[in-house]
Automatic annotation (TrEMBL):
The chain crosses the membrane at residues 138-160. It comes from Megalodesulfovibrio gigas (strain ATCC 19364 / DSM 1382 / NCIMB 9332 / VKM B-1759). The keyword Cell cycle does not apply. Residues 7-191 form the Ketoreductase domain. Pfam families: adh_short. CDD domains: SDR_c (cd05233). This is Putative SDR-like protein.
Length: 251
């Protein structure tokens, strides 16, 4: 039996892309789900499809997980469903193209809230409950190779992902009661990739020159392939990955 069976997982970024594909992959293993994203209609559609197809329990919390209210609501819904076991924070915003000084305040908030503030708010809301779990809890943060590079046009995203990776290390150092690791999903054909291939602004040319060849050479994974890989990793006890950065296809 999968480690995920009959457990409840909070999944952010669940309305599209890897997050939506991951909802299917987790449901296939018998996990109940609390789906979060900013837009409610696609979450309601996902809930309907998942409950009919996999006979699991699904709750929906729409809104920005960077706010304390939404982060707490995700945890409360998971506890209501029963068997709250962890969070997978798949949400992210790229805003490709502009140099750092060209970004406006809303764009800055979009990127940093999705990766930085939301990852902290979710930990803040969930860790007290997860640390009480008999079998331990789980917190998976979505990372990126961008965390270790500097590239014009995605500089804020690079910095935000570096923050997220170091937040994982801090959480892992502070307690072993919650298994915390970063999952790097690889180069995946998502809305972010499409946005990068159409990037404008001071760094737009550099971004397009990097992202477009991956698409032209057929190097991009499908969202489903990357999601299934993580779900399979979680079939077994996830504790060996505590404090690590795990890359798609690594094991």
């Amino acid at each position: 039996m999968s480690w995920l069976a009959n457990k409840t997982i909070v999944l952010t970024g669940a309305s599209h892309g890897i997050g939506r594909a991951l909802a299917d992959a987790l449901a296939m293993q018998g996990a109940n789900l609390v789906l979060n994203a900013r837009s409610k209609p696609p979450l309601k559609e996902a809930k309907k499809t998942l409950e009919a197809g996999y006979k699991i329990k699904v709750a929906v919390v729409d809104g920005d997980a960077a706010t304390a209210r939404v982060a707490r609501a995700c945890v409360e819904q998971a506890e209501t469903l029963g068997g709250f076991a962890g969070i997978i924070h798949a949400a992210g915003v790229l805003h490709p193209g502009p140099h750092l000084w060209e970004l406006d305040e809303k764009q800055y908030d979009d990127v940093t809230h999705a990766s930085c503030k939301a990852s902290w708010q979710l930990a803040r809301a969930a860790y007290p409950a997860l640390m009480r779990q008999k079998d331990g809890g789980l917190y998976v943060l979505f990372g990126s190779g961008a965390a270790s590079i500097a590239m014009p046009g995605i500089g804020l995203y690079c910095a935000a992902k570096a923050f997220e990776e170091h937040l994982m290390r801090q959480l892992a150092a502070e307690t072993d009661a919650v298994t915390c690791f970063v999952y790097q999903p690889g180069k995946v054909e998502t809305r972010m990739q499409q946005q990068a291939r159409e990037a404008t602004g001071g760094g737009g040319e550099a971004v397009r020159a990097t992202f477009t060849p991956w698409h032209e050479r057929g190097e991009l994974l499908s969202a489903q392939a990357s999601a299934v890989w993580l779900a399979r990793l979680l079939q077994e006890d996830p504790r060996p990955w505590h404090g690590h950065i795990v890359r798609v296809g690594q094991v």
